[in-house]
Write a structure and sequence with these properties.
Order of helices and strands of chain B: HEHEEHEHEEHEEHHHHHHHHHHHHH
Strand content of chain A: 5-15%
Low-confidence stretches of chain A: 1-38, 273-314
Largest sheet of chain A: 9 strands, mixed
Largest sheet of chain B: 2 strands, parallel
Helix content of chain B: 40-55%
Shape of chain B: elongated
Radius of gyration of chain A: 25 Å
Strand content of chain B: under 5%
Shape of chain A: globular
Low-confidence stretches of chain B: 1-44, 206-357, 378-383, 388-412, 415-469
Distance between the termini of chain B: 101 Å
Oligomer: heterodimer
Largest interface: A-B, 102 and 99 residues
Distance between the termini of chain A: 65 Å
Structural class of chain A: alpha/beta
């Protein structure tokens, strides 16, 4: 490769430090890594320019990864590594997580490497870490608490006059909303109802912790309370195990859970392998890798072995979501509260997902950057263990593994309507309580907005990040 | 009326609940001695406070009797009634003799009641209350347990009617001070407000120390100089987690004060007031004032350092809220002129190790990149530019959601265009680069990669990908 720098530097004679640092940067040939270390001007990049630089590098890198040209992707990754650090400003942090995701995505070309690295972290993060990250999310951002407030208000309104209330929590790692609900029920003018809480979670320990906490509180408030733990993953949950009695007043809450059920074996790798003419020697590995991939991500569903080298859209198993929603509808819930991320991270094309995710997580990282100090360990943990993992899942995973299939509320509404649910507008009072909570939170970048149909959007600076909606059977 | 026999001096101390008692026909102690009560029902004479009816019958009931709801018991079935009349009507059912007594106004003795609680003011016959219901409520309120709680706020009541009356009005009319305190009464709100503003101004003088010690020099620039007014008060607010100081510092910025006065108050931005007003005239959405506001803030800091004040208006115009009217004023060509000046100033700045410059948020950077891509790639809409002017309550369908192929193309274009513009902006000899690359056509790759051998390959790659996408789209 002809080094570019030699030519052009003479042309405009600007190789001194006083020239624009970015200009020199742009002139540099990527094929000359030896030039990279001598880059003191990189430090002189102002953060905006560095940010813009990062964006362009990221987009290019994503393109090349999506196209499979890993050499160029690698070069971009090297460049990005100079600028992106996980403890810098918002754009740097975003870049560091997105490049890790891209790198993992690139490694999928060599499935052996991919699976070797993946299984190292496939213990999923240790349970405690994930719980800690979730706790930080609860503390540092108001979104979860907003949804709890809104959900509790909707539950109280729906359950007015009921003597027995049964609530099913589809991800009960957090006793916070139910503590608040117990308080609210206590203050009901007609007295508290008998409360049954059925909590679904993968891990028994978290359920135990929640059980203890809630039972103590109910005892203290003198509310008849019953806790039923159900240890199960969501995608193979048997609704019979929830033990709902016919005619019970039932409320279901699904906070950031339903999108995991959209996972299906629509691995894009299979399609790419079938269409592209890969460099020699890789073909075998790709097919084997895809086969392994389907097996690996099976999760109890039998892989369709004939789809490895088959033409693209053949034999994609349907996602679990429709049967799950139908089963929930069959329980005749009085109320179902759904909170989801408001962004489309489920398109089949990597580049689309990449750009959507970039904008979405930029807003999330921005809100953290504006409200939490940079050196905060909690923020770092949250970004790395929760948001970073989500990003990696969106970008680097495919098929059954890709659980973070966020979709926008309109899409969810269509699915829920198709399953038989009708929308329940969240009342004025829910919005009022949400606004009050935000005012108490003390940062005016956060906003809560009502969308058509009585749904609430939680926004950062006018960008909706999460949606909350209520449904009935 | 003759003075009371026990000439009790005026009790100047007023009970807390006096204003509620005044509703009833009782001799309450209003403030000035000898003043008539505020209202006098025409039917019954009200005594002067402190001067009870001397020939009234004083009745002292025990607490149990007082709280007993059913004082009239049927001797046949022991059913209790609150009123004599109801009992009589009930007795008809037992075929017992019944008589509905009429109250005889001539003979009726005026009755006054005493509070059974010895420590209470109304335990004294001279301060007896004139109504049975009144004494019952008084006893509950003052000496009873508060069993009724308002569900909106946390106020508790012993008397159900009080509770009902309160819940009707709770939350309906509220005043909120900047510091977050809620008031239901206008007068107390105003008083607090005056006091609170004093606190606010006091804190601005303390603030620079607060900022420096908080160590937010590095990151807080979004709210940089603006943290002035709000900082002091909000330090009292306990945030749910680690002190989100930026949030605290900025929380008052948009609550009640218009940005103009805000900056004016901080004392550092007088010359920017006109800038802000211009910006706000250009912006379309009211809600965007905050967004523009914080963008302006860091630009204002920049202006201090580089002296290029007017130039800095332009990027914020590209933000979604002002795209309609403002963007026309600042075509992308301005970027070329302005950015180099900023960059030229950089080395001197950075060598002097200044406090870290204010930073654009990641979202803002993305939108700027999209803008640059959109500006450079003429008529074709870029993928990124779809995000410009992005979010309103009605989600606007965007091309990339519908058309894979087109979106990928536009992404490439935005990179090519955006990259090209990006490189151009930075380069005084912009045209020279293009010549060197050797393409009169817009480069298909972005300006940051210079790969002579690869140019041809890239275009091949691009067409390959396009066909791949079209194949994907054609397949069902």
């Amino acid at each position: 490769m002809v080094p570019l720098m030699g030519n052009v530097a003479q042309d405009d004679g600007s190789s001194s430090v006083t020239s624009s640092p970015l200009k020199s940067f742009s002139l540099m040939s990527l094929s000359q890594p030896a030039l990279l270390p001598c880059a003191p001007w990189l430090r002189e990049l102002k953060s905006d320019e560095r940010g813009l630089c990062l964006i362009h590098l990221l987009l290019n890198c994503a393109n090349h990864v999506a196209a499979g040209s890993l050499d160029r992707a690698n070069a971009f990754l090297e460049q990005i590594a100079l600028l992106a650090v996980p403890d810098g400003d918002a754009m740097q942090r975003i870049a560091s997580h997105f490049t890790e995701a891209l790198a993992r995505r690139a490694i999928r070309m060599w499935p052996g490497l991919y699976h070797a690295l993946d299984s190292a972290r496939a213990v999923v993060l240790p349970l405690a870490e994930a719980a800690v990250a979730r706790r930080h999310f609860l503390d540092l951002c108001p979104f979860l608490r907003l949804s709890y407030v809104v959900a509790n208000q909707a539950i109280m309104e729906a359950m007015e006059g009921e003597k027995v209330v049964h609530i099913v929590d589809l991800n009960a790692s957090d006793p916070t909303p139910w503590l608040a609900l117990l308080q609210g029920l206590r203050a009901r003018p007609e007295g508290p109802p008998h409360l049954k809480l059925t909590a679904v979670h993968e891990h028994r320990e978290l359920l135990n912790h929640t059980a203890i906490r809630l039972s103590e509180e109910a005892e203290r408030l003198d509310i008849p309370f019953q806790f039923n733990p159900v240890v199960s993953k969501l995608d193979n949950l048997d609704v019979e195990s929830l033990r709902i009695k016919t005619g019970e007043a039932l409320a279901i809450t699904a906070v950031l859970q339903l999108h995991t059920l959209l996972a299906t074996n629509d691995s894009a790798d299979a399609r790419k392998a079938a269409q592209r003419a890969p460099p020699a020697g890789i073909t075998q590995q790709l097919s084997l890798g895809d086969y392994l991939d389907k097996d690996h991500g099976a999760n109890g569903h039998s892989p369709s072995a004939d789809s490895v080298l088959s033409p693209p859209f053949a034999s994609t198993s349907p996602a679990r979501i429709d049967s799950f929603l139908a089963a929930l509808w069959g329980l005749s819930p009085k109320l179902m509260v759904v909170m989801e991320q408001e962004s489309n991270h489920n398109s089949a094309a990597l580049t689309e997902r990449f750009v959507e995710a970039l904008f979405y997580y930029a807003a999330l990282f921005d809100c953290l950057d504006s409200t939490v100090p940079r050196q905060s360990v909690e923020r770092l943990r949250l970004e790395k263990m929760l948001l970073g993992e989500e990003i990696k899942n969106i970008i680097a995973c495919e098929g059954w593994e890709r659980k973070e299939r966020h979709e926008k509320l309109e899409q969810w509404a269509r699915r829920l309507n198709a399953a038989g649910f009708a929308a329940v507008p969240l009342g004025y009072y829910a919005l009022l309580q949400a606004s009050r909570l935000l005012q108490g939170f003390g940062c005016d970048g956060y906003k809560v907005r009502e969308e058509g149909g009585g749904r609430l959007m939680m926004c950062w600076q006018d960008r909706p990040l999460f949606s909350v909606s209520a449904w009935r059977c | 009326m003759a003075a009371a026999s026990s000439s009790v001096p005026f009790f100047g101390i007023r009970d807390e609940d006096e204003h509620e008692l005044s509703k009833q026909q009782s001799t309450t102690a209003a403030a000035p001695p000898g003043a008539a009560p505020a209202f006098a029902p025409p039917k019954k004479k009200r005594n002067q406070p402190g001067n009870p009816n001397p020939d009234a019958e004083v009745i002292a009931l025990s607490p149990k009797t007082l709280m007993a709801t059913n004082r009239f018991i049927c001797e046949v079935c022991n059913k209790g009634f609150q009123r004599e009349q109801n009992l009589q009507l009930h007795r008809r059912g037992h075929n017992l003799p019944w008589k509905l007594k009429q109250k005889n106004p001539k003979e009726a003795r005026r009755r006054v009641y005493l509070c059974p609680e010895p420590s209470c003011v109304h335990h004294d016959p001279s301060r007896a209350l004139g109504d049975l219901t009144g004494i019952k409520k008084h006893y509950c309120r003052k000496h009873g347990e508060k069993k009724w709680k308002c569900d909106k706020c946390s106020k508790k009541y012993a008397v159900q009617s009080d509770w009902k009356a309160h819940s009707k009005t709770c939350g309906t009319r509220e005043y909120r001070c900047d510091c977050g305190t809620l008031f239901s009464r206008r007068d107390s709100f105003i008083t607090h407000r005056a006091f609170c503003d004093a606190l606010a101004q006091e804190s601005t003088s303390r603030l620079p120390n607060g900022i420096a010690s908080a160590g937010v020099g590095g990151g807080g620039q979004l709210y940089g100089s603006n943290a002035g007014i709000g900082g002091g008060i909000n330090l009292d607010l306990i945030p749910p987690a680690n002190p989100p100081q930026f949030g605290q510092l900025s929380s008052t910025s948009s609550l009640f004060r218009p940005p103009q006065s805000y900056l004016a108050g901080s004392g550092s931005g007088h010359d920017f007031n006109s800038l802000i007003q211009d910006m706000q005239n250009n912006t379309t959405a009211g809600a965007s004032s905050t967004g523009n506001f914080y963008n302006l803030s860091f630009f204002s800091n920049n202006a201090g350092t580089t002296g290029a004040g007017t130039n800095l208006l332009l990027p914020s115009d590209q933000f979604p809220n002002s795209r309609s009217s403002g963007s026309g004023l600042f075509p992308s060509i301005n970027i070329k002129n302005n950015v180099p000046s900023l960059l030229v100033a950089d080395p001197t700045e950075s060598t002097a190790a200044p406090p870290a410059p204010p930073q654009m948020s990641a979202t803002a950077l993305l939108q700027k990149a999209a803008q640059m891509g959109a500006a450079a790639s003429n008529s074709r809409s870029s993928l990124l530019s779809g995000f410009v002017g992005a979010y309103h309550s009605e989600t606007t369908p965007r091309a990339q959601l519908v058309d894979n192929e087109r979106s990928f193309q536009t992404l490439m274009n935005s990179l090519g265009g955006g990259g090209g513009a990006f490189a151009n902006n930075l380069d005084d000899g912009a045209t020279k680069l293009h010549h060197v690359v050797g393409a009169g056509t817009p480069p298909a790759d972005n300006g940051l990669t210079r790969d002579f051998l690869g140019v041809a390959n890239l275009s091949v790659l691009e067409s390959e990908m396009k066909s791949a996408f079209s194949r994907r789209n054609n397949n069902p």
